[in-house]
Amino acid sequence: MPADRHLVYQTSLMSALLDGIYDGDTTVATLLEHGDFGLGTFNALDGEMLILDGVCYRMRVDGTVIPADASDLSPFAVVTRFVPTVTIPVDAPTSRDEAVALINATLESANYLYAVRLTGEFEWVRVRAVQRQEKPYQPMSEAIRGEKTLEFGRSSGVVAGFRTPLYGQGIGVPGGHVHYIDAAHQHGGHVLDFALVSGTIEICIGTDLHLELPLTAEFEQADLSPDDLADQIEQTENHR
Ligand SMILES: [Zn+2]
Predict the structure, then answer these.
(1) What is the distance in A from the centroid of ligand 1 to the CA of 77?
(2) What digits encode the pLDDT tens for the residues 186-221?
(3) How many angstroms separate the alpha carbon of residue 125 from the centre of ligand 1?
(4) Hey, which of 1, 79, 228, 236 has its CA 20 to 30 A from 172?
């Protein structure tokens, strides 16, 4: 059993994003009060969010990165204070699937949340970013039709995010949800796939989930339990 409790803070739900709830009421400043590590997106799906070492980045549809403002709003984000309890050195070229297998083999239980940070040299990283959405918002399955897939060549950087158990379906993205940013904080996005040359995987367990739901009319009206929830998550978040 984990020695200590460790809190993960989340605003809104993956299922709300899928339903087109792209405007939230949580500021970046609030997120940073609850963690120095995390990911998510910004209102109107205007960029992918990554928080590393207490700094929040907005990664735009063209793959470029700017620092987020404290007042920027998020419709979905997950953060924690990253305190690694497990470190796995990776000395040989490793695919995303192999990295996931390494992580899964190391976890003491599949039944908790885990924050994962992979720092290293990458042969390539394939990411996507979604185009900023205009109202009236369409469901995520429609919004990603305009997504751009980018591939970054050899670079050093960080792949970071969360591993969520299957019971978290709809709350988060079951399996891994990770974002990439290069070491110069110039390029990044939502990770589809990568090839790691070498690096270090660090893992931080999450035993407690604080879920803060938006106090918005749109959230009140959202359909959060579609019949094809699992398919929608697979299609929008996990495709390669
Ligand atoms: Zn993402």
Answers:
(1) 9
(2) 999 999 999 999 999 999 999 999 999 999 999 999
(3) 14
(4) 1
Separation of 192 CA from ligand 1 center, angstroms? 9
For residue range 10-63, list pLDDT tens digits in order: 999 999 999 999 999 999 999 999 999 999 999 999 999 999 999 999 999 999
Of 35, 31, 75, 76, the C-alpha closest to 172 is 76
Residue 86 CA to ligand 1 centre (angstroms): 24
- Domains delineated in the chain: 7-238 (3.30.1330.80)
What is the whole-number distance in angstroms between the Cα of residue 232 and the centre of ligand 1? 14
The pLDDT of residue 230 is above 90: no
CA of 189 to the centre of ligand 1 (A): 7
User: Residue 146: pLDDT above 80?
Assistant: no
Q: Cα of 47 to ligand 1 centre, how many Å?
A: 9
> Across the strands, what pairs with 187?
64
Q: Which two tokens stand for residue 147?
A: 């997504």
CA distance 217 to 178: 29
Half-sphere exposure of 96 (CA within 13 A, CB side): 19
Give the largest CA-CA distance in the chain: 50
Rounded to the nearest integer, the mean pLDDT of the chain is 95
Q: How many whole angstroms from 32 Cα to the centroid of ligand 1?
A: 18
CA distance linking residue 173 with residue 159, whole number of Å: 16
